[in-house]
Amino acid sequence: MMNKLLLTSDAASKEVFQMLQDEIVVRLRSVGKKDNAQMVSQTQNHDAEDSLLKWGEHHGVKSKLRIAFYQGAGRGMVASESIGVGDTALEIPESLIISEELLCQSEVFLALKDFNNITSETMLLLWSMRERHNLSSKFKTYFEALPENFNTGLSFGIDALAALEGTLLFDEIMQAKQHLRQQYEDLFPLLCTNFPEIFRKDVCTWDNFMWACELWYSNSMMVVLSSGKLSTCLVPVAGLLNHSVSPHILNYGRVDEATKSLKFPLSRPCDAGEQCFLSYGKHPGSHLVTFYGFLPRGDNPYDVIPLDLDTSADEEDGAAQSMSTSQTTHMVRGTWLSRSGGFPMYGLPQPLLSHLRAALGCGLDESTTEADIKENDRVLLETLLSIFNPMLEDLPETDESDRESASWDVKLALDYKDLQRMIISSIVTSCTSALENAPRWKLKVLH
């Protein structure tokens, strides 16, 4: 917008617009610096990744990025030159995007299009599992550059799952694993029997199926293709970009109709040599661990704990219950993320407080006395403590000596558990602070 204004404005206005643009860029540059500074670059052989970039360039990929390896994050992409706001860091031809449109040209689609109402997403997964072992595949270089193991929550072993017991993430991972196992059993060995030339038994193993599942969970993107259809896709090269809570690239979901390519423009500047981050979406840590295999650095504003409150009341006439007496889910996050972290409620979530006030009959009106307000708030805060104190007790602190010798999955499980403890502890601390400072708070209300 500022660039357009600068081009069309008169001389007097141009000076003002230039000052405004400069100030905007300064502020954009300040975002995410802490996150980037925590990444430590590593020297590592990346012949497969270099081959992927050369393969991409041969097929029309345009890039201002190069590959680097980072401690704790694996592969990432670094700006090979300084890239400004609105500039395109990466451009991928639509012909390289693995989508349903590509699938429709394959023998997998021809064989399965009328098979038991199978979805296009499942067919793409099966195509990937098979194509990975196709030596004459157009995407051979892409598949060779992919990791042997994705190390997501879906690959957690028994020790990591044991470390998560008592958390909602444990249930989420177990349900996902059960769903994928059932899906595999519904497909195999039936497909191998019906289509032996397409689905070989040595390729269609559980391990290969899980690899394909983790590939699509961790690398897929939602893209509006030039046909106008929104599709789940794999985008070679772009999958090397890491996620951040303060990414450089936010908007990249539509193929440019003029160039027939998917462009990745920057929403904040990226200096030469700086890691360029992509947004994977507004996901809590539990989702990122399960399907991507990491927790982001820095405060993730979408890290939440779902809290199901069943405050159903018995109705004498069986009439429909009001919203205040039905089961409600609240998303509770760390109170340190609140903009009002102090007096009077120390960052406690207002929707949750309002819901509990209604459920406990602690609503306020003109006739409510000061004594009633004080008592209602005490009941409200003690109710919150009765909910969160047991949750905190179920999450004992980690023995650091156990973490040092632990496997990757146990370490990630413990990191997630520490995050949950921090969120719950912040709620408990805020409730305790509000109770301790209640008399002083009431004086402020009177004034």
Task: Write a compact overview of the structure shown.
About 45% of the residues lie in helices and about 10% in strands.
Structure characteristics:
447 residues; alpha+beta; 4-stranded antiparallel β-sheet; 3-stranded antiparallel β-sheet; 18 helices; 45% helix; globular; disordered C terminus; SET domain-containing protein; SET_dom_sf; SETD3_SETD6_MTase; SET_dom
Could you explain the architecture of this structure?
- Strand 6 and strand 7 form a beta hairpin.
- Helix 9 packs parallel to helix 17 and helix 15 (370-393) runs antiparallel to helix 17 (408-436).
- The strands form five sheets. A four-stranded antiparallel beta sheet has the order 2-5-10-9, with no helix packed on it. A three-stranded antiparallel beta sheet has the order 1-3-4, with helices on one face. A two-stranded antiparallel sheet has the order 6-7.
- It contains 18 helices and 13 strands.
- It is an alpha+beta fold and 447 residues long.
